[in-house]
Design a protein that fits this description.
Keywords: Glutamine amidotransferase, Hydrolase. The protein is α+β, with helices and mostly antiparallel strands. It has one domain: Glutamine Phosphoribosylpyrophosphate, subunit 1, domain 1, CATH 3.60.20. The strands form two sheets. A seven-stranded antiparallel β-sheet has the order 3-2-4-1-10-9-11. Helix 5 packs across helix 6.
């Protein structure tokens, strides 16, 4: 369910990441090659990008399939950035159908996406609500499982946890309640944190120049590496670090 990608590197057009590669995210909306759950990602899409010196990214999100939006290719052709996060959506049953539920979610400098699902949502994870103060509950961006996961991650970030720890602790907490798929992707425009938990995640690094982290490779060039399941990735333009994630307590 869903495909997503994050890029850090030299300034390029959105299209060079999202549209032009032979197996781009644009194409993955109808023809993903390695998606384990679902076949078409046509329930919404979004892209967030950074335009320094402003640290707060811009976002463009819509319902429906990315190929049906006539503005996408125009934006992708002219908007330039050195950091982005984008996603195409295959919705979970019972989730909000509007663009508020389309990734990337955002707050301050952060962009976030969730590829996966929380089976039995919302009843299966109702206990997690106790982790959030009332004001955070009122700020949840959409009625869907991904928005709840984002609220849990953001709560940890605001409490001072570093990105990797915030993702890892959220995965452990959610997985203790339901057999969830939790591939999470987070960036502040300078670094990327991601988890592989139940679906595919790949990265491609050109040291000192650029790094791409994605649900699946968008081209067939050498250098793509698949993460093992149950892993945390931390990446910058200079390097990638991968560590195992802890299983939730029985």
């Amino acid at each position: 369910m869903c495909r997503h990608i994050a890029y850090l590197g030299p300034e390029i057009t959105l299209g060079e990441v999202l549209v032009e590669p032979p197996h781009s995210l644009y194409r993955q909306s109808w023809a993903p090659r390695r998606q384990r759950y679902g076949t078409v990602n046509a329930d919404g899409f979004g892209v967030g990008w950074y335009a320094p010196p402003d640290p707060v990214p811009a976002r463009y999100r819509r319902t429906g399939p990315i190929w049906a939006d006539p503005s996408v290719k125009d934006l992708a052709r002219v908007v330039r950035t050195g950091a982005l996060l984008a996603a195409v959506r295959d919705t979970t049953d019972g989730s909000a159908p509007d663009e508020s539920a389309a990734a990337p979610y955002g707050a301050g400098p952060w962009l976030f996406s969730h590829n996966g699902a929380l089976p039995g949502w919302p009843e299966s994870v109702a206990g997690l609500v106790a982790e959030l103060p009332p004001e955070d509950l009122l700020r949840i961006e959409a009625r869907c499982d991904s928005a709840l996961v984002w609220a849990l991650v953001l709560h940890r970030l605001r409490a001072g946890q570093p990105p990797g720890e915030a993702l890892a602790d959220t995965v452990t907490a959610v997985a203790a309640h339901t057999d969830a798929r939790l591939n999470l992707l987070l960036t502040d425009g300078t670094a990327i944190a991601a988890t592989a938990w139940g679906d595919t995640l790949w990265h491609r690094l050109e040291p000192g120049r650029q790094v791409v982290v994605a649900s699946e490779p968008h081209d067939d060039r050498p250098g793509w590496t698949e993460l093992p399941d149950r892993a945390l990735l931390l990446a910058t333009r200079d390097g990638v670090d991968v560590t195992p994630l802890k299983e939730p307590p029985a």
